[in-house]
Specification:
This protein is of the alpha/beta class. The protein is built from 12 helices and 10 strands. Strands 1, 2, 3, 4, 5, 6, 7, 8, 9 and 10 form a 10-stranded mixed sheet that branches. Helix 6 packs parallel to helix 7 and helix 9 crosses helix 12.
């Protein structure tokens, strides 16, 4: 995230504070809703704050608040329980929630409003550790991300596909700030950060240390995709992070917005329509918003698309197809 994007994110979050103040005052017929995002060092939070502000201003009868959470797993559970109306999630966590597997004891009644942007797996270390591949993590101190996060789901999916289990390294469950501090002070050897291109937490490490973004081979990507079809390969371009001067191949998967499958069709339609019509406002917060277009957002694969969201996409995209 560039300094311009950080300034825009702060401005968007300031707008959310104003919107929340209005929500606290209450308005006749106003619904106060929440969007579950992530921690403040990731991209879910500023994008969620921007969306909350946009929805509060442009969807009649809605005041939306953005809330910090541990990430995808927590978000999915909160939405399924009705504790949050909208949640950000990674595709792998959503697949597990719908199937009732992994961290989810039973299938969750969820549907998507659309696909957002690709989540890139950053396997980050410091050059002095000598870690050059995912197999070098054996015997090291590695953060997989905090409990309840999609980051942890992704890290374990990648590690297990590579044949690496809990007994092969010292597991740390740290948030982004703790992971960054651990790499800086030498109490941690490597860590996984799953997020959009230009993740602030990764930028921060690269600014203060001789950071290495550990590459994956094409064969390793193919192995991960066979184990987890939601994944694909992504080439991180040089220049995004300080010290990363060559293209780096790494796994990636998409993020989505989810709601209860029983959400009112009209509300789901309005939330989807407003997000897509105001996507340029989100692009002022982070460049990853450039991925959010109607054709891309509708392409949720096998995941259920909420009928209200489908109605919006059909209105926008079907006439163009004829």
């Amino acid at each position: 995230m560039t300094s311009r994007e950080r300034r825009a994110a702060r401005a968007a979050l300031a707008g959310v504070v104003v919107a929340l103040g209005a929500a606290a005052c209450g308005g006749e017929g106003q619904q106060t809703l929440s969007v579950a995002t992530g921690n403040t060092n990731g991209l879910y939070y500023p994008l969620g704050g921007g969306l909350a502000s946009i929805w509060s201003r442009h969807v009649d009868g809605v005041n939306m608040k953005a809330e910090t959470t541990a990430g995808s797993v927590t978000n999915l559970i909160q939405v399924a329980k009705g504790e949050s109306e909208v949640g950000f999630t990674q595709a792998d966590a959503l697949a597990a929630a719908l199937a009732g597997s992994g961290r989810f004891p039973e299938p969750m009644p969820l549907a998507s409003l659309g696909k957002l942007y690709p989540n890139v797996v950053h396997l980050v270390t410091i050059r002095s550790t000598g870690i050059e591949s995912v197999q070098d993590l054996r015997g090291r101190r590695v953060s997989v991300g905090p409990p309840g996060s999609g980051n942890a789901v992704t890290a374990w999916n990648v590690l297990e596909a590579m044949g690496i289990g809990e007994s092969d390294f010292t597991v740390r469950q740290l948030n982004y700030a703790q992971m960054s501090n651990g790499l800086k002070d030498g109490t941690l050897d490597a860590g996984f950060i799953a997020g959009g291109v230009g993740m602030p937490a990764v930028v921060e490490i690269g600014v203060s240390r001789d950071m290495v973004l550990v590459p994956f081979s094409e064969d390793e990507i193919a192995t991960i995709v066979r184990a987890e079809p939601a994944y694909s390969g992504f080439v991180m371009p040089p220049g995004v992070y300080r010290g990363v001067d060559e293209p780096v191949l790494t796994p990636t998967l998409w993020n989505l917005l989810v709601v209860l499958d029983t959400m009112d069709d009209g509300l789901a339609y309005d939330l989807t329509r407003t997000m897509l019509e105001r996507r340029e406002d989100l692009a002022n917060i982070s460049s990853v918003a450039s991925f959010i277009t109607p054709p891309s957002a509708r392409d949720v694969g096998d995941f259920p698309l909420h009928p209200g969201a489908r109605r919006y996409f059909d209105e926008v995209l079907e006439p163009a197809a004829r």
